[in-house]
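ok, trying the design again with the full structure, not the truncated one.
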């Protein structure tokens, strides 16, 4: 399955390229923003390496999750971070728990996520940047206020953490592709996906045109079909969604403080700034 470190490696490489491009264009403000983001991503990479050195592999174990007691000792925020890294899209607590149960050892319940975002915000306010990453809400594209039902990772670019009108569908399709690729990667490596992983993929596939055979089925038989159908629909929506997110991210960088870019602007302030923009 997809390795969280690989995703962070890719983000680091992309940020370094973006810094070079912004520097060549003479955009010093953008260079500063990207460098700060690069530092946060590199800290997240360091933290994940340290976690992997002291905990079991995140690959699906041959035994039930209860047989991995050391993994259960990880803080809930690290379980959430691993699930989000796999999805690469903002996600609601229920989906985060389902992804964790399907692919990772250890214990994670929705109740553990109820106060997590507030704890993360308090931690940031008490010592900004002390942690390699923070779990933060997605931001509404218009008001740039927090979308409390969706969690993201602070090291993601602003564009990835913003929710526009088409973003829920784009994120759904992105999640379907990532889950399908994780399962296919496990199969290629000789591991058997858990029933929970296959049920999760089926739930996605049944809501994507062309992802399942015409006849009714309770099992996904062709993972490649799910990926191809998801990519086909994603192509329809992705450009418009990306344009909305990009425009909102540019506005957020001008209007919001560093803290607000992570946790959103207060509703009253957000409405005033939206009216002025």
């Amino acid at each position: 399955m997809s390795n969280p470190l690989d995703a962070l490696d890719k983000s680091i490489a992309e940020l370094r390229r973006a810094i070079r491009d912004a520097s060549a264009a003479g955009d010093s403000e953008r260079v500063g923003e990207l460098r700060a983001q690069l530092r946060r991503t590199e800290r997240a990479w360091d933290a994940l390496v340290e976690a992997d050195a002291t905990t079991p592999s995140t690959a699906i174990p041959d035994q039930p999750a209860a047989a991995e007691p050391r993994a259960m000792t990880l803080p809930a925020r690290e379980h959430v971070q691993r699930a989000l890294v796999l999805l690469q899209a903002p996600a609601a607590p229920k989906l985060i728990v389902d992804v964790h149960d399907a692919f990772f050892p250890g214990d994670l319940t929705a109740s553990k996520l109820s106060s997590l975002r507030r704890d993360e915000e308090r931690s940031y306010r008490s010592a900004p940047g002390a942690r390699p990453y923070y779990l933060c809400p997605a931001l509404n594209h218009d008001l740039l206020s927090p979308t409390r039902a969706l969690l993201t990772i602070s090291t993601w670019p602003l564009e990835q953490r913003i929710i526009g009108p088409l973003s829920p569908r784009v994120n759904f399709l992105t999640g379907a592709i990532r889950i399908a690729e994780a399962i296919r990667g496990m199969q290629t490596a000789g591991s058997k996906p858990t029933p929970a992983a296959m049920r999760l993929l089926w739930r996605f596939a049944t809501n994507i045109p062309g992802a399942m055979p015409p006849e009714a089925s309770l099992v996904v038989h062709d993972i490649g079909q799910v990926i191809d159908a998801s990519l086909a629909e994603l192509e329809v929506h992705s450009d418009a969604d990306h344009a909305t997110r990009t425009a909102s991210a540019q506005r957020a960088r001008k209007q919001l403080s560093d803290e607000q870019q992570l946790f959103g602007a207060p509703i009253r302030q957000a409405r005033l700034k939206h009216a002025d923009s």
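Keeping the full-length input from now on. The CA atoms of residues 159 and 250 lie 9 Å apart.
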